[in-house]
Amino acid sequence: MPEHRTEPEPSNLNLRNILSAIFKWKRFILGFTVFGIVAAAGIYFFYPTVYESDARLLVRYVLERSAVDPVDAMSGQSGNRGTGITNDGVIAAEVSAAAAAINSGLATTTAKNSNIIGVSYQDRKPEVATVVLNELVNRYFTKHLEVHRSAGAFDFVSQQSDQLRARLNQTEDALKALNAKAGIISLKDTMDSLNQQSERLEDQLRAAEADLAEQQAKVKQIEQGGAAGNLNETDTTKDNAKDNATPPTHLASTKDIGDHQALVTNLAKLRETQLEMSAKYTPENVLLKMNQAHITDLEDQKRNLEKKFPELATTGAKEGSGQMNLAVERARLAGMKSKLDDLRRQKTQLQDRMKQLADIGPQIASLERSKELEEQNYKYYSGTLEKARVDEALDPSKMPNISPIQRPSPPGKVTKTRNKIALGFAGGGLPLGIGLALLSELVFNHTYKRHSEIELQLRSPVMLSIPYQGINRGIKGRLRLPWKNGQRAGQDTPDKSEATLAPWEVEHFIRPYSEAIRDRLGLYFELHGVTHKPKLVGVTGFGEAVGTSTLAAGVAAALSETGDGKVLLVDVNAANGEVHPFFAGRPASSLTTAIEPQAAITSAADNLYLATITRSGKKSAHLGLKKFFALVPNLKASDFDYIIFDMPPINQTSPTIGLAALMDKVLLIVEAEKNHRDVVKRGYRELVGARADVAVILNKTRSYVPKWLESGS
Question: Looking at the domain assignment, is residue 578 inside a domain?
Answer without folding.
Answer: no
